[in-house]
Amino acid sequence: MSERCPADPEIIEGLPIPLAVAGHHQPAPFYLTADMFGGLPVQLAGGELSAMVGKPVAAPHTHPVDELYLLVSPNKGGARIEVLLDGRRHELVSPAVMRIPAGGEHCFLTLEAEVGSYCFGVLLGDSL
């Protein structure tokens, strides 16, 4: 019988994990969830944007925790999203990050995205 050594790595495969999130039209693809590794204070969802131009993934919705939108692309300026936050529109051009305050009503629309562009939602807490 082998015992687990505290220094052994923990590996989770089979990602992303689709989870239902209020306001989203389909389950969101999660790469980190609150129940991983004995409990995490952060969750990470998102995906590749090039096929999502002009297609909203969610209706305006809120979370009980802060969320960070992290927009990245292979080339500077290779992705643009329009974020609606509490009725105000903001445009992000990659690379960029935007904090969505807890309780803020938000959603985004991809305006432009070269292949390999991603938007990740980093939820700063264990609640969706």
Write the layout of secondary structure elements.
Layout: E1 17-19, E2 28-32, E3 43-48, E4 67-72, E5 79-85, E6 88-93, E7 96-100, E8 106-113, E9 118-123
Antiparallel strand pairs: 1-2, 2-3, 3-9, 4-7, 4-9, 5-6, 5-8
Structure characterization notes:
Helix content is 0%, strand content 41%. The protein has strands at residues 17-19, 28-32, 43-48, 67-72, 79-85, 88-93, 96-100, 106-113, 118-123. The strands form two sheets. Strands 1-2-3-9-4-7 form a six-stranded antiparallel β-sheet, with no helix packed on it. A three-stranded antiparallel β-sheet has the order 6-5-8, with no helix packed on it. The protein is mainly β and 128 residues long.
Instruction: State which percent range the strand residues make up.
Output: 35-45%
**Main beta-sheet strand count, sense and barrel state:** 6 strands, antiparallel
Distance between the termini: 39 Å
Number of strands: 9
Structural class estimated from helices and strands: mainly beta
Count up the helices: 0
Tell me, what's the shape?
globular
Largest beta sheet: strand ordering:
1-2-3-9-4-7
Share in helix: under 10%
How many whole angstroms does the radius of gyration measure?
16 Å
| Low-confidence regions | none
Name the helix and strand elements from N-terminus to C-terminus, one letter apiece: EEEEEEEEE
Mean of the pLDDT scores?
Answer: 94
Quaternary status: single chain
Protein name: Cupin domain-containing protein
InterPro entries: RmlC-like_jellyroll, RmlC_Cupin_sf
